[in-house]
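Running co-folding for zinc ion.
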Amino acid sequence: MSSTISNKTILFIYAHPDDETFASGITLASYANQEDTRLSLLCATRGQAGKPGNPPLCTPEELPALREAELREACKILGMNRVEILDYEDKHVSDVPKEELAGHIKKMIDEEQPQILVTFAPHGISGHPDHIAISQATKYVVDHVLDKSSSVKKLYYVTIPLNSPFTSKQGTPTNGDLIENITTIIENEQQQEQVAKALLAHRTQHMSVERVFPGIGSHNYENVRTKNYYILAWHNLTDYIVDTDVKEADLFAHVTE
Ligand SMILES: [Zn+2]
């Protein structure tokens, strides 16, 4: 991964504590190791509708604060520079007017001046309505809020190839994308253990972490993903077409300023 620009910044826009590590763990760990790259996260909720663990690690009332603490710990492990959490209710992000969500995203863009935005693909991977809502709000910002003077050059949707073992909470078929539609693969085997530790920092979520990455609870990290998959959903670069047979290996590919 190499790029000639300075002040490289990626803004991740997700819905719940743990989305960042599940969806983009290896990406975060990889870019955090590049000294000139800043990583920021906007997370819409504190994941208060999640499980408190089994046996429970806290009361339902304590869960939002504990999940925020887990998120901050995971992000520290992954090298995230900034974490901002909005006050929305888990499972109710789709009730928030899109313009309101867009306002929060725009504010973060103004503060961070990222070249790259990352959010869920429109299907939300697990199909969670909050994932879909935050994806739609982010695309809305790119299409209707930002202007040509914006720092933002690319929007990526995180996804998984359709042959992935990831399963959704509802037991319904997983959403993903055909590998031929995926534009970008961030791969890094060196940081697998770092990602595993970030996953384990989401202690209340140990059941879903263990379900998706079997063995991780007993420190067998071989199922922890060493690749993250993205679709370049939008860019404003001149004459840039991704060759999906080749795949980008860097989110900053072809970004020159
Ligand atoms: Zn989520």
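Result summary
Residues 15-16, 19, 128, 131 surround zinc ion (CB under 6 Å).
Residues 8-235 form a domain with the Rossmann fold fold (CATH 3.40.50.10320).
Job closed.
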